[in-house]
């Protein structure tokens, strides 16, 4: 008997439902009962396959679609930021924001959950940003020794949370574009 | 009979315990039972006084000490940022981080809680930052029309969350100082 008796399609559906539930109720309030009800599974099946709530949520994160691999390369740093933002659709932005918001407390005390979030959601975005920045350095648009380079992921990830705390809303693409122009590019002294 | 039968000292103690519990278990997992146990009160007392969990937590936030009112005024923008960071002690930074982290999801769906957090924790910090920036404009250190001005609170609040998501730790004062020098001051084109 194989470990999994779920088809890949059914599994993908289940993982999506888990992440939806996390966004709706928060990680702490998520119960295996709610997952079972939402996905029309038995709790026995859930526990047999994933053993615990943290393992189920971490696995759901690992299997999520993740950010699109469409690397941008427009020939300028400003152009690359614009293109990255243009790829972002409002619905995905809302989904990612909700997920980060729902997990930021839980990951702090749950290393497995943190690793899953880091690997699946944060690291790919960070890598995409670093590629864009490295190319700007190669083109001579920004200095290799500019100390703001290491903080580009912080400037952009932080914005998601800051806008929610300060203005109680999700940042729009327009807002992020203004922030990139007013803060990120000047800090990098982009020429 | 007065509405409150708790002394102000007892109330302050209770509010502090509520915020500690929020930081430990998260808002969603906080129960009135846990508050009653931690504060050695009866649940009946808690409900009689505060009616509901959101009301109790919002009131606890409202009554919290809030950030120190020590306005800094060193004569330069860099000096003011340095002085603000020097006032921050590591323990308070950890406490504030834990509170923001614990509440960021809950406030999104609970307007009363958001208002309490905004009024008590966010607005005073934002006001202190704006005072520092306005003085730098008056001194001619930064241009009144610099578009990064409006984003100073975002750059700094966001950093709390970004460091936790990207590096799984609380930002240190040293880290924040490097960020101010590398990002905030250059974005403001401080002279």
UniProtKB/TrEMBL annotation, chains A, B:
The keyword Cytoplasm does not apply. It comes from the Bacteria. Gene3D superfamilies: Homeodomain-like (1.10.10.60), Tetracycline Repressor, domain 2 (1.10.357.10). The keyword Cell membrane does not apply. Keywords: DNA-binding, Transcription, Transcription regulation. SUPFAM superfamilies: Homeodomain-like, Tetracyclin repressor-like, C-terminal domain. Signal peptide: none annotated. GO terms for molecular function: DNA-binding transcription factor activity; transcription cis-regulatory region binding. InterPro entries: Homeodomain-like_sf, HTH-type_TetR-like_transc_reg, HTH_TetR, Tet_transcr_reg_TetR-rel_C_sf, TetR_C. This is TetR family transcriptional regulator.
């Amino acid at each position: 008997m194989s470990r999994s008796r779920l088809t890949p399609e059914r599994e993908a559906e289940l993982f999506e439902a888990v992440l939806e539930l996390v966004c709706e109720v928060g990680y702490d309030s998520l119960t295996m009962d709610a997952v079972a009800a939402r996905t029309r599974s038995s709790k026995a099946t859930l526990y047999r396959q994933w053993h615990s709530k943290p393992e189920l949520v971490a696995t759901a994160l690992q299997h999520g679609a993740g950010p699109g691999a469409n690397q941008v390369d427009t020939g300028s740093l400003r152009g690359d930021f614009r293109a990255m933002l243009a790829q972002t659709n409002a619905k995905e932005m809302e989904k990612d924001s909700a997920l980060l918001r729902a997990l930021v407390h839980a990951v702090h005390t749950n290393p497995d959950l943190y690793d899953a979030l880091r690997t699946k959601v944060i690291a790919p975005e960070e890598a995409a940003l670093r590629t864009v920045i490295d190319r700007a350095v190669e083109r001579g648009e920004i200095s290799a020794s500019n100390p703001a380079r290491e903080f580009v992921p912080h400037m952009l990830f932080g914005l998601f949370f800051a806008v929610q705390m300060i203005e109680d809303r999700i940042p729009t693409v327009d807002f992020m574009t203004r922030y990139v122009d007013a803060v990120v590019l000047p800090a990098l002294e982009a020429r």
